[in-house]
Amino acid sequence: MSLQSHKEQPPLLEVNGLRKYYSVKGSLNIFAGAKEQVKAIDDVSLKLYEGETFGLVGESGCGKSTLGKSILRLTEPTEGKAMYKNKDLFQLNSRELVKVRKDLQMVFQDPYSSLNPRKRIGNILEEPLAIHSIGNKKERTDKVLEVLNKVGMGIDHYYRYPHELSGGQMQRIGLARALVVNPKIIISDEPVSALDVSIQSQIINLLRHLQQDLKLTYLFIAHDISVVRFISDKIGVMYLGKIVEEASTDSLFETPYHPYTKALLSAVPNPKPRFKKERIILKGEIPSPLNPPSGCVFHTRCPYVMDICKKEIPVNREITKNHYVACHLFNDV
C-alpha cells in the first residue's frame, strides 16, 4: 500500500502516547522501600493502516517486544491510548478485551514456550476457536486443517506434539494459531530471529503471501533491519523506549536522517556496493532504562551531540513527506 493512499482511509489501529513503566525497588534505598521506574516504553505513537506492514527495528532491550505486548495488553500499559474501531483498547474491561482479541493476534519469538507441550497441535489450534465459541467440534477441526494447509503443514502435524517439530515448523504452528480466528492485525515479535537463514526466507515469504491472500495488517518486530526492509512498507526505528525515526522503507534506506538510523544502516552488508560505505561505530553502551539520559536519549552515543541534546527532548518533526525524525539537528527544518 502506498503512503499516499493513507489520507483516503483512517488508520486501522492508532497508538498515542504509549508508556510502560515498571516499578522496582531502588538498590540504594531498598530498606526504606523506595522505588524507581524502568521506562521500557516512553511516549510512543504509531499508526497501522489496513493491509500494510509496519516494521519496528532496534537493538535488544530497546522496548520493541514490550510495545507489542502492551498494545495487546498482554502486559498492562502505564499510560496512553490504542484506538481500534473507535474503541480504546486500554479502557476495555476483560470481557470486551476477549472479544476484540479475536481481531488482534500475536506471534511470539519462541513458539515452543508459547505452546503447551502436553497437548497435540490440533488441540492447541482448536483452543482459540473454543474460547471465542466459533463452530462445533467438526467445524473447528476442519478450520484447523484448513489453516495448517495455508501455513504449509499437513494433516499428520495435527496429531503431533510440539517437541516433535523443528523450529521452522513450530513457528508455522505459532502463525497458524494466530490465523485460526481470522484476525485483522498480527503482531509478530521477532518471528524469524531464532531460525536459520534459509528457513527465515521461507517464513517471510509465507507472511507476505498470507498478507495478500487474507488482507492482513502486520506490526513486524525485529532487530535485523535487512529482514525488516524485505517485508515492511513502513519502518519505525526504536531506541531506548522511543521511536526516533519513521518513514516508508524506501525513504528510510535512501535518506536516513537520524544518527542512530545511519549507524544501523552502515552495518548492513552490501555484496555489490556502488561506492564504499563508511561504517559508523557507535561508542559506549546503551544507557539503562532505569536511569535514562536527560534530553535526547541518544545523546550519550551520538557523534553529532550538541548542548541542547543534553537538556531538551527532541520533537518528532516531518522532515520530508511522511518522513518523521526526533532529532535536534533538524530543529530549523
Automatic annotation (TrEMBL):
Domain ABC transporter positions: 13-265
GO terms assigned for molecular function: ATP binding
The keyword Transport is assigned to this record: yes
Keywords of the record: ATP-binding, Nucleotide-binding, Transport
A family per Pfam: oligo_HPY
Superkingdom, natural source: Bacteria
SUPFAM superfamilies (alphabetical): P-loop containing nucleoside triphosphate hydrolases
Record bears the keyword Nucleotide-binding: yes
Similarity field: Belongs to the ABC transporter superfamily.
This protein's name: ABC transporter ATP-binding protein
